[in-house]
Amino acid sequence: MSTVKSALTIAGTDPTGGAGIQADLKVFQEREVFGMSVVTSVVAQNTEGVRAVQHLDVPFIEQQLDAVLEDITPDAIKTGMIATVEMMELIARKLKNSSIPYVIDPVMVAKSGDSLMDDTSRQVIRETLIPLATVVTPNVPEAEILTGIEIATQADQKLAAKYIVEELGAKAAIVKGGHLTGEETEDILYTDGHYTSYYSERFQTKHTHGTGCTFSAAIAAELAKGKSIEEATSIGKEFIRDAIQFSLEIGKGNGPTNAWGLRLQGLPNEGENVHGAPIR
Ligand SMILES: Nc1ncnc2c1ncn2[C@@H]1O[C@H](COP(=O)(O)OP(=O)(O)O)[C@@H](O)[C@H]1O
Ligand SMILES: Cc1ncc(COP(=O)(O)OP(=O)(O)O)c(N)n1
């Protein structure tokens, strides 16, 4: 009997491999969890931005989900780009009575500024998916939309995280600090009435395509292995720090995070700041 755990990502695609499903699968592999995926939207994007989006038909997304879930029970599920109300309703129906740990990265806008979720869905996700979540991982603009709270300080991050749990019904929320300023990044977790902060140095790099996907996928992988929410977040934070420190200068725009950054720590260039390193 295999002891390898599995995780399922339900999300959109990035043909350049830096974000979305492709990024999630790399992270699952790196965290030694068997990765599975259900595609919601096919996105023609690259490191410079989004060119076009095609949403798959909801009945076909359901067929993909059924094909996985009737065969394999994942040890954790993550959702990323869920762009329409109909997709949200489908996933909510499928996960309603499930006890599988469920991480929501409420992807709304790509770093390039391109919208990945329509306006109605930004409101509807609050009622459909968020109450089912084990952990929700919004960045600052996403947390502002979910809560209506303007976020500029650590105190605002805390208020928003608490709101997502106490008012919207998630088990835990991590309001990420990547979009704020300062020498450090601080991500604030609220769960079971307690706050925990997770810090890292802030790297001065433009190569941050896929940071949110990478962070949430790492948390999902650790939950799949049975780690607590606090432990999974701590490992996720270390993972994203190294994935950004060793991010890659691929493409003409914002290069992607490096899912094997943590492994590089064991190599001779340990500690060196190599972000922007070409892969050749
Ligand atoms: N320049 C940076 N240096 C170090 N960590 C960062 C940097 N930018 C973002 N992070 C971290 O990456 C993760 C994703 O953050 P964020 O950029 O806020 O989300 P998103 O990619 O969803 O916009 C968080 O843990 C955040 O603190
Ligand atoms: C298909 C798809 N899903 C999510 C994103 C957003 O990724 P994120 O990790 O939030 O980082 P950026 O790509 O916005 O830098 C995406 N671009 N595509």
Automatic annotation (TrEMBL):
A Gene Ontology molecular function term of the record: phosphomethylpyrimidine kinase activity
Signal peptide coordinates: none
Protein name (record): Hydroxymethylpyrimidine/phosphomethylpyrimidine kinase
PANTHER family: HYDROXYMETHYLPYRIMIDINE_PHOSPHOMETHYLPYRIMIDINE KINASE THI20-RELATED (PTHR20858:SF17), PHOSPHOMETHYLPYRIMIDINE KINASE (PTHR20858)
One Pfam family cited in the UniProt record for this chain: Phos_pyr_kin
Matching InterPro entries: HMP/HMP-P_kinase_dom (IPR004399), PM/HMP-P_kinase-1 (IPR013749), Ribokinase-like (IPR029056)
UniProt GO BP: thiamine biosynthetic process
Pathway: Cofactor biosynthesis; thiamine diphosphate biosynthesis; 4-amino-2-methyl-5-diphosphomethylpyrimidine from 5-amino-1-(5-phospho-D-ribosyl)imidazole: step 3/3; Cofactor biosynthesis; thiamine diphosphate biosynthesis; 4-amino-2-methyl-5-diphosphomethylpyrimidine from 5-amino-1-(5-phospho-D-ribosyl)imidazole: step 2/3
Species per Swiss-Prot/TrEMBL record: Gracilibacillus halotolerans
UniProt EC number: 2.7.1.49, 2.7.4.7
Domain Pyridoxamine kinase/Phosphomethylpyrimidine kinase: 14-258
